[in-house]
Specification:
Helix content: 40-55%
Radius of gyration: 23 Å
Number of helices: 12
Structural class: alpha+beta
Number of domains: 2
Order of helices and strands: EEHHHEHHHHHHHEEHHEEEE
Largest sheet: 7 strands, mixed
Distance between the termini: 22 Å
Shape: globular
Strand content: 5-15%
Length: about 350
């Protein structure tokens, strides 16, 4: 187990995914004067494009945050924000409130993604969990801003998966990002009253089984748990787990993990050590500590295996702590869900 995380290639600057001023063609050559020259119109065009890119970059973290909380899929969130940029870039009509306009576009695209994902989730093998966002401990990491809010914690994202698409949009936009119900209704293509009802139903669904409140001992407890696992100390692991702890896995059949939720400290600990027996000591020792949706978790790049142990695929571990004990573990072992992590291909 190591204590750092290399941001990796997935930490490209926001602007590297956009058509921005720095990617414009070289300056045209005025053949008649045999010198480099720009027309006044070209100068204005380039300055305008540079300003447009700067304006978008300033809003990009919030737009990514909105799209991610709506879809629960970081790769979809990136695509949605890129699509919003392209739509703005080709927009002819004047936009008086850029933040509101882009948020509306991103929200509508997010709703479309949620609805189209229904079939994909129905045919998914095992449990469907949100895509985690894994960052280093340096808050300068641009992705840290995307999951800086408490309602972007992994436990909170899991709760959102229980909501219908329209309920999720109403709840996230109104309760999470303070959009008015009139604005939410515009996104959903419904009435303000209907949008209000959708948000109310979503609140009731969340309140029925809410995510645990952030625990101030989270980092300490997770650190102790990872150390106990690395030492192979089953009793110590059990003592750090909440009696009602749950373990959920997500691999879409691509790697061994829990297909159904496992409950109880003894059962969860024995399942974890069963995986370690399959993969060998590397299942514990190859973990690297990192922030998973803003809270301490871990990830591993995997291990090649040997004569006695199977090859271990990369995976990400998100955890939640309540009352000084680990109350939930989520094992994300589907490589398709690594787009917001150093494991991104």
């Amino acid at each position: 187990m190591t204590g750092g995380v290399n941001p990796g290639p997935c930490r490209a600057k926001w602007s590297q995914r956009l058509l921005i001023a720095s990617e414009l063609p070289e300056l045209p050559i005025d053949r008649e004067r045999n010198a480099t020259a720009l027309s006044a119109a070209e100068i204005v065009r380039r300055v305008t494009l540079a300003n447009v890119a700067d304006d978008f970059e300033a809003l990009r973290p919030q737009l990514l945050s909105v799209a991610y909380r709506l879809t629960g899929t970081f790769s979809d969130a990136e695509d949605i924000v890129q699509d919003a940029w392209l739509r703005w870039h080709t927009q002819d009509a004047p936009i008086h409130d850029l933040r509101a306009w882009l948020t509306t576009v991103v929200s509508r695209l997010g709703l479309d993604r949620l609805r189209s994902a229904a079939h994909r989730r129905e045919t998914y093998t095992g449990q469907w969990l949100p895509e985690p966002v894994v960052t280093g401990f340096d808050r300068a990491d641009p992705l840290s801003e995307v999951v800086s809010r408490e309602d972007a914690r992994f436990a909170a994202m899991v709760v959102l998966e229980r909501l219908r698409p329209d309920q999720r949009v109403a709840f996230v936009l109104h309760d999470g990002f303070a959009l008015s119900f009139a604005e939410v209704a515009e996104v959903l293509g419904t009435t303000e009253s209907a949008a209000r009802q959708l948000a109310s139903r979503a609140r009731k669904a969340v309140a029925a089984d809410p995510p645990p409140e952030p625990d101030p001992s989270h980092a300490e407890v997770v650190g102790l748990l990872m150390a106990a696992m690395a030492a192979g100390d089953l009793d110590a692991v059990v003592s750090l787990l909440h009696p009602d702890v749950t373990f959920a896995g997500d691999s879409n059949g691509k790697a061994p993990t829990a297909v159904q939720t496992i409950r109880g400290a003894q059962k969860v600990a024995r399942f974890i050590f069963g995986l370690a027996k399959r993969y060998g000591p590397a299942f514990f020792t190859a973990n690297q500590l990192a922030l998973v949706n803003g809270e301490l978790g871990a990830y591993t790049e995997g291990s090649p295996g040997d004569d006695e142990h199977r090859e271990m695929m990369p995976r990400i571990l998100a955890l939640s702590v309540r009352d000084g004990k680990v109350c939930a573990l989520w094992d994300i072992a589907n490589p398709d869900k690594f787009s917001g992590s150093p494991l991104r291909g």
